[in-house]
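Run log // design_07
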């Protein structure tokens, strides 16, 4: 049985403004209604696979849980990192957890933010790698290059036609002339960052080549604790682990490395231009997501979150419109979105951090409007879910039910509100919301007061 370990800690800044730190690209449902995380999980289900381990940032815990629930996948473990530590620490954690489950376990380590369109080709490649992994090799998967791309690292393979080939070297991102030479050579593949290994072999590799990382991960796991459906790694211990990739920590040091080259129509979606590459297009090469229109335009991408976006007389242009930010860029400059995000971060702009909609265990809340001493939010509460009993020091709240039924408790008095009914929560009053129904309940919340920050919450048992 193969234990998938899905890495979900990336931030995807090059897909701003749709991708943000609190909801990065692996959670965006823009691929036939599913997110990249969901597609990755579904790619690793079936008789050959155990329930997955998902390793992600603690700020994304409810997004992870919600998206797994949407596709009916129950994780073996959702392991929360208090801060990012590249890929070496998660690889070690997955090996240690798998070894506890089964001394003969195989781990399939893979990113959550890559698109693979030919899943049959991917599964066949994994099947080809199993025998080598059981024999103790750490198997990586290389993507057969289709162009002289300078944005990927490469793997040089020993010449041959076997489905599993020996690795001669890992190669850094090349310049264009070198990438062309790699393409002509035929023995170079793109490094996809996907690995299959026996848990025992990976632990042994860490013990030999990176024992300090393994010791740190062991300590962080030993001090971890359960929080709802999640497992939180100990922050102090985990923060002391080297921030290093598995390539540098292990792959470039061990001898028992193999590679399975494959061509599953893979894309790491590292830019909006890459998204355009994989999207369906009209006769003029234009790709639209949402309510979009094109007139005398060629090879453009337009994304509309909730308003009409129209493109006229332009070529090779990206237009991405969300509720609070708009990006317009030359498609050839799509990699520079990261530089823009860095400059916005330097200004402490909130648009790089969070979307107007924030997900919670009970549903979501979405900012509609804010101003001096007021804020308006739309809220959804899932069936049989409730918010904590709480009060606010600086604000009062007005609630209007839009659809469904909500049970409200204010200062110990409980009653039901249905469509078009409302309630007022005075400043300082203890209150709770609960959806007792079978369908999601929608409501509008108007906050008013001298301070409206999310930290003005006092929770009561």
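design_07 sequence
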């Amino acid at each position: 049985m193969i234990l998938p370990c899905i890495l979900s800690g990336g931030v995807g800044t090059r897909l701003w403004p749709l991708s943000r730190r609190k909801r990065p690209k692996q959670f965006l449902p823009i691929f036939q209604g599913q997110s990249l995380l969901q597609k990755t999980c579904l790619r690793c289900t079936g008789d050959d696979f155990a329930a997955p381990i998902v390793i992600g940032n603690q700020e994304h815990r409810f997004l992870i849980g919600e998206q797994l629930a949407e596709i009916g996948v129950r994780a073996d473990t959702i392991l929360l990192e208090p801060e990012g530590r590249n890929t070496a620490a998660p690889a070690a954690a997955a090996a240690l957890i798998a070894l506890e489950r089964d001394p003969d376990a195989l781990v399939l380590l893979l990113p959550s933010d890559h698109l693979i369109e030919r899943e049959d080709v991917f599964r066949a490649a994994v099947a080809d790698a199993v025998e080598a992994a059981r024999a103790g090799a750490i198997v990586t998967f290389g993507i057969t290059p289709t162009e002289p791309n300078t944005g990927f690292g490469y793997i040089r393979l020993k010449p041959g036609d076997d489905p599993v080939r020996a690795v001669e070297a890992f190669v850094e991102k090349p310049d264009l002339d070198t990438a062309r030479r790699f393409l002509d050579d035929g023995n170079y593949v793109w490094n996809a960052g996907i690995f299959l290994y026996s848990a025992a072999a990976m632990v042994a590799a860490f013990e030999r080549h990176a024992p300090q990382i393994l010791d740190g991960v062991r300590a962080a796991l030993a001090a971890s604790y359960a929080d709802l459906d999640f497992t939180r790694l100990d922050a102090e211990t985990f923060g002391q682990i080297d921030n290093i990739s598995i390539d540098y920590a292990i792959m470039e040091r061990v001898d028992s490395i193999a590679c399975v080259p494959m061509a599953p129509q893979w894309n790491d979606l590292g830019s909006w231009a890459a998204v355009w590459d994989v999207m369906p297009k009209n006769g003029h090469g234009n790709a639209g997501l949402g309510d979009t229109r094109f007139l005398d335009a060629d090879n453009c991408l337009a994304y509309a979150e909730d308003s009409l976006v129209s493109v006229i007389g332009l070529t090779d242009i990206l237009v991405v419109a969300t509720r609070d930010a708009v990006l317009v860029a030359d498609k050839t400059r799509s990699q520079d979105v990261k530089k823009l995000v860095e400059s916005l971060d330097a200004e402490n702009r909130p648009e790089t951090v969070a979307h107007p909609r924030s997900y919670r265990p009970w549903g979501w809340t979405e900012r509609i409007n804010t101003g001096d001493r007021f804020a308006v939010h739309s809220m959804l509460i899932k069936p049989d879910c409730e918010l904590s009993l709480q009060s606010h020091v600086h604000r009062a709240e007005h609630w209007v039910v839009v659809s469904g039924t909500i049970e409200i408790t204010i200062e110990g008095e409980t009653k039901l509100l249905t469509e078009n009914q409302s309630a007022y929560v005075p400043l300082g009053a203890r209150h709770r919301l609960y959806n007792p129904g079978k369908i999601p309940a929608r409501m509008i919340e108007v906050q008013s007061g001298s301070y409206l920050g999310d930290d003005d919450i006092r929770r009561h048992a």
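The mean pLDDT is 93.
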